[in-house]
Amino acid sequence: MRFAARGSLHQIAMVQSGRLIGGTIMRPGDRGMKSIIETIITNSGLWDGERAETHRFLTTPDLFPLSVEQVRDLRLLGVALTECLEGASRIAAIAKSGELGRGLAWRELQEFSVMQVEKAYRPLQVARPKQIPRIVKADFVEGEDGRLWLVEIDAMNRRGMGYTTLLSDIRRTVKPEAKAFPGVSPLLAAEVKRRNVDRLVFLYAHKERFYLPEFEILKRALRVEGVELVIADELDMKIENGRIFVNGAEEPSRLFINFLVIAKNAPLLTALSAMYLAGEVQFLIPPKPFLGSKALGGILRNDDGNEVLEAILRSQIDGAALDTVRRHTPETFFVGRHRELPEIDSNHPWVLKEAIASGAKGVVFSTDDGFSSALAAAKKADGRYVLQREVEGKKRYFRYYLPGSDDLTAAGRWYTRLVVYFIAGIPADVGVTGCQTKLVHGGKDAILMGAMIDE
Question: How far is 321 from 313, CA to CA, in rounded Å?
Fold first, then answer.
């Protein structure tokens, strides 16, 4: 289903079985659907009380259609990403040794692996090279030809799993017959039970309190699957003589979702680090911040054509897997004082990205007014930024409910970003964020929707 651009009512009026009312598209039952969707969101706790303002987004009865080819590519990428992360983990450990890997390329790899990584976590991320994230978040942009472009590998992010679960709940209500991926909670529960346990600890930083509603959504979904998720603020956890306590009660589980950056509880950081090094706790996302850096895409692409780096990559990563990831990753270059950059003009648009930053922070498009000054500053921060070719996204038009109204509108083109969670290399689910500006981010002006497989 497609809609014309803003102001063109001809194609908008072509919506099957719909009717046009004052520039909005209505179908039988659409008005009631908004109430049903908002009830699902409210019941999840996401819009409780003040959260109705701080966590609000635009709702839609539409779903993002994934083609059979896109689904095939995501399944292949799940396997390929796992192989690349395993290889990158080994490379980081070799580079850190200073003896096993020698020369300029190895030295640069070592520098990139610790760039913007807290000192306390540097020895942790190379201590167990065989351990890699079992949960991987990857962001994609759909190109004009339908290809999914991998614009970010974020193997450290676990916050969005609640949103993805919520969007799946909405999808099942809006279109219960829609074919889709299995979902985050079933695959995550299977990964937990594979270890013969049924409890999982979700430790979050005190500054992440804003995301607590999302964590609670995941907790309820996992409970349905027979797994208890223990959510703990870093300030509410302590470890004494190898015993873990949450809010004063002893916690028997030794399986955590991830080892976050603990900023306000130094004793906990020390004790948890010691337990990890001793093999007394396990993490589905082990402490390897390097694998969540945008620098990883630049290393895997090797667009500078560094022959030594290429040999290193292919010595540790299966060639077919590396080639698969490269086919779906835009050209990516490191920014620095002595690094050559590609041609940047209106015909060759690029995006400047900070290597480790959350959301849209540190992102500047080459068409933005402040790009030149941002690029100059990035060159001085040698290695902390990458320059990635901008993907011209496929034009998408979705209906959405106007704020404060039951009316639907199809006005405006949406720039979309697909957030895919892979669990044990399998695509678990896809959540889609859309904005009417190129800088796609969550917020009150963003549209959030689930995805379906469009056969």
Answer: 11
Note whether residue 79 is domain-resident.
no
Task: With respect to residue 368, please indicate whether it lies within any of the assigned structural domains.
Answer: yes
Segments of 221-265 assigned E as strands = 228-233, 237-240, 243-246, 249-251, 255-258
CA separation (Å) from 152 to 81, 209, 295? Answer: 12, 24, 9
Whether 352 is in a domain gets the answer yes
Cα–Cα distance measured from residue 225 to residue 221, given in angstroms and rounded to the nearest whole number: 7
**Which segments within 336-414 are labelled E, that is strand?**
350-354, 363-365, 385-389, 400-401, 408-409
Q: In what order do the strands lie in the sheet with 350-354?
A: 332-335, 385-389, 350-354, 363-365
Beta bridge partners of 385: 335, 354
Q: CA distances (Å), 296 to each of 5, 220, 222, 336, 356, in order?
A: 37, 33, 31, 16, 10
Domain tally for the chain?
A: 1
Say if residues 292 and 157 touch (Cβ distance below 8 Å).
yes
Which structural domain, as residue segments, surrounds residue 381?
A: 331-390
Domain-embedded: residue 339:
yes
3-class secondary structure, 265: coil
Phi/psi of residue 155, nearest 5 degrees: -80, 10
Residue 186 in tokens: 């079933």
Per residue in 167-209, pLDDT (tens digit) is: 999 999 999 999 999 999 999 999 999 999 999 999 999 999 9
pLDDT digits (tens, 9 = 90+) for 346-388: 788 999 999 877 666 779 999 998 999 999 999 988 778 999 9
Q: What is the pTM of this model?
A: 0.90
